[in-house]
Amino acid sequence: MLKINSIYNEDCMNGIKKIPTASVDLVIIDPPYQLNFSKRKNKDRDKLTSATCKIHEELIGVHLTEGYNYNLLDELVRVMKKINIYIWCNKSQLQMYFDYFVKNLECNFEILVWNKTNPLPTYHNTYLSDKEYCLYFKKKGYCNPQNYEDARTVFLSSTNIKDKRKYGHPTIKPLDFIRKIIRNSSKENDVILDCFIGSGTTAVACIYEKRNYIGFEINKNYYDIAIKRIKETKEENIKKHSKERSHEFE
Ligand SMILES: C[S@@+](CC[C@H](N)C(=O)[O-])C[C@H]1O[C@@H](n2cnc3c(N)ncnc32)[C@H](O)[C@@H]1O
Known about the structure:
By secondary structure, the protein is α/β, with parallel strands linked by helices. It contains ten helices and eight strands. The protein has one domain (6-31, 68-249): Vaccinia Virus protein VP39 (Rossmann fold, 3-Layer(aba) Sandwich). Helices cover 41% and strands 18% of the residues. The site of S-adenosylmethionine has 21 residues, from helix 1.
């Protein structure tokens, strides 16, 4: 049996089977995108800048270009109390997610965008790679932003090179963005599932926003990074609250 406020070093396809039906309030997933550049011909690869190549090679090296098993979606629908899910994706996956959630399951949707202010300057026959999509699907789900900033659908920030270096994960997502979607689509003490927890961003956001989390990470190195980050966040939180309490008595 799995425990809440824990993450597990295992394939989410196995782990999710241990989660009871209709037990999760919100799902946030950031699966590996399916990217085709590993199959590009050398001629095409030569056109890429060396910086782009370096990023691509880094992602290929840690198996972050191979996509995931879409059968997971059926399991996610099973474990959610109501459909209430955020999914990071690239443009080639948009059609598939809309078919699954909107056409077949008749969900409402919203398209959120992380707009990166400093993308690599590669625009040979194409636009800049300056955004990532975070799709939101709900069916009787909960979306209730409490202020103007939280209600914005476009999140502007630079590519988080600092976080990538600090936590050693090449596709880490911005913590402030994850905290915002958690505030908007869940309540305190709700249970939030992330099947691809990476460096632990969703778990850390849950700790700050007083939600419960459960997560899976298949890569032992990233799992260890997430465990360390979660531990440090909890310690920092305890210190902050004990400081707040001591202020009350001054
Ligand atoms: C895009 S990253 C997530 C990054 C995360 N959002 C963060 O902010 O750190 C996807 C993660 O899923 C993991 N992963 C890939 N396939 C998996 C699977 N079947 N089960 C569990 N984790 C998986 C990868 O190792 C990777 O760390």
